[in-house]
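I trust your eye. Have a critical look at both lines of this record:
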Amino acid sequence: MTETTELDERWEVFDRWGPHGLLVLSTLIAWAAADALGMSTRERGACGVLIVAAVVLELRWSRVVRTRPGPSTGAVRHYFLRWAIGFALTWANPLFAFYAVIGYFSTERLLPRHLRKAGLFATAVTLAGSQSGGLPPNHELGWVLFGALLAANSVLVFLFGHFADLEEARGRARLKTIAALERTNTALQQALDENAALHAQLLVQAREAGIAEERRRLAVEIHDTLAQGLTGIIAQLQVVANAPDEGTAREHVDRALGLARHSLGEARRSVHNLSPVALADDGLPDALRKTVTEWGERAGVQARFAVTGTAEQLHDEVAATLLRIAQEALSNTARHAAAGRVGVTLSYMGDEVSLDIRDDGRGFDPLALPARTRTGGFGLDGMRARAERIAGSLTVEAEPGQGTAVSARVPLVRHDR
């Protein structure tokens, strides 16, 4: 775009001063050769008048072209008046063709497309007359030479004109391409602006989703900790109410106090999003062993825990997830299974960890589970969501009267410190 503007500026300078320079040059050369060409005093006077007319014409056009550049009726009139003066000067002295040649350079900027070939041909006539020795030719051979030179000039002119048309067409195509690129850039900028707005909207949505996820996490944590702890406390206090002696009552009160302290610690940890209290000092196997033992004592159920494979230090999130699944499964067993025995197995299997909780309770039909109510726990759906959150899975096998088996399989992600 800058190159096009610079070229237009140069042509503007040439259109303003080029005709004056060529007129001065042709006048000096023609006047120097006037005697050799045998110009009469009358012819010299006529040439002087024509030169003055050419100067006036060019000065007038220099002012007009500043306000009305490009082809117009006035430009056509100027072109052919200039041609007529150049033709007359060349008729009087062939060396004035140096001025008449300006017609070749100003055709595209002064004439509309349908008159350009006529203007080029008229200029070719003037130059062919100068090249053949002057107009009119003096003899038959002069006319033949004039005709040959006119034909040669016309072919060259029209050939170069054709190339100029091709270049102009290419220029128009280039301008269209530039305009299309500008439209594309504008559309791209609009798309970028829309993308920035969408990005900002996504950030807001992600923030809102994070808040919702945090609320859900706290709900799950409260259910897994406070709700279960309070349930255990209530169960212990109910036993106290029906205890046959003070020693038994004291034992269950102590258990209730322990559960209360444990639940308080879990509540604080949930607020700070730390690992479960049971994992604060122990690894997952020890935490599960204590959880299963304490649960068995509270529920009065024979509960056993086993580890298979080589135990490894797991990532905090993986360990916390498996512990929560075990706590939820044991809580479900205490509420619904009426089991006499429960077995919990933690298995390290290469790149996976498996947690299996089995009981010999009443079982159930997995396809006939009732919808979760507001007063119910998070249950199987909550355990499955926990496992899937760390790219794991959870399966349940149960039949009425045949007990229940819950199996969680998650990737073995080692501790990152």
